[in-house]
Amino acid sequence: MSLRLFSISTSKLLTFFALLVTLSLHTYAAPIEIYQTGRQGDRLEPIQQLGRFAHTEHKLTIEPDQSYQTVVGFGGAFTEAGAHALSELSGEKRAQVLRDYFSPEGAHLTLTRTHIASCDFSLKNYTYAPVPGDVELKYFSIEPDQRFLLPMIKDSLAVEGADFKIMSSPWTAPPWMKTNNHWNGGELKKEYYSVFADYFVKYIQAYAKEGVDIWGLTPTNEPLGNNSSWESVHFSAEEMREFIGEHLGPTLDAAGLDMSIWAFDQNRDHEMLHWAETIYNDPVASSYVDGLAVHWYQSTVDVGGKNLDILHNKFPQKGIIHSEGCLDSIGNDEPIGDMLEDDWYWRAEATDWGFFWAPDKSHHPKYRPFYRYVRDLIQGFNHNLNGWIDWNLVLNSRGGPNHANNFCGAPILVDSGRDYVYYTPLYYAIAHFSKYVRPDAKRVGLSSSEDNPLWTTAFLNTDGSIVLVAFNPEERTTSFSLSTGGKNTVKLSIPGQALQTVIFR
What we know:
21 strands, 2 domains, eight-stranded parallel barrel, Immunoglobulin-like, alpha/beta, ten-stranded mixed β-sheet, TIM Barrel, disordered N terminus, 25% helix
């Protein structure tokens, strides 16, 4: 089984969960499937109908007729760091990782991201236009991607049953186009706005020649900057509006390229509301933009639900994609260590790098990694996200490699020296969504009793299947009744610290 469903669970654990999890089919006649990941060892395990129980503590009702946003997809990012880490595995292990991410038997990811030229998770700084003053881009070349990054993307596309979109983002313009002539920081010179737009076209066309179609773009990653710690090019909201409306959009049109453009690409705090108003209130720029891309950093306490709702309610015709987020390593000087242990992901106060640098420490308490990851997925979609992209799909056991010494976690970590692949609990968490909530699904209404402790969200797929994703943050088992449209009731229980996906076919 390519998802490694039984890599940790034993027959004893299965017996244990058989005692905890019960399902009673009452009036619901359609097939039902339940999959579970939890602290006790389950990893997307199928939970079978085992018996009946009379009492349930809580009530959940799915309302399929209440339809909300459309799902674009779930996934993660291709980076040179991840591609390099994969390249050091044996061919068999590398191929298995890609199948486990992209095949229907695996997580079946549907939305990905990659970087245009170098980023902090590259092995070194590089650009596709290295010759200063080359305004015609005669020397443009994606050759730096040929060794690691492109092979990973192409091999992923070749996985049987793979079906995913690719969003691309530059971290910086070529340094010679910027006010500071440097990789980090600086602004794009006005005289190079049109050249930078041509740069995107050259990139898209070059990748297409390699058999890689780009679906979407952001004008730049984190336009507000990163304290000049690694590649960046700064834009104000007004400057990005001008770049999109007067240069990028028309240039793509002239080249016959139909791209989905997502503006902003920074943290989902109040700043994104200003950017949305600035860009969307310009009819020309707005016509080229499908929505905002947002990141999850600076939001340990406030997951951005209020801001996401304000944004959606003000501009309901525009989408919101979570384009980047990751768990942080404990420190940059040592191997990840605890991140290679399953229980760490449920442990209280396991991590938060923001705790060390944030001006307001109260907004960055340390957290349980699995809880935060699942919470942000569930609550993000309950607050109008259309898509979710993790940061690096794969990293090595140190959380790299990268030239910026900016190490972090990933759903899959590898130790090439031992030819070892570790599927973290986060891999299974995202698979709970990506495998069963498919593109063009609609989030649907979901109500519950007031004292319900579960974190829940629900979707209706285009094939008519209904999907509930529920997490129990408490220590004890919780039972609940679940109905669709007020009828067809089933009774379920979910162990403490467990995530379940329930599917009605």
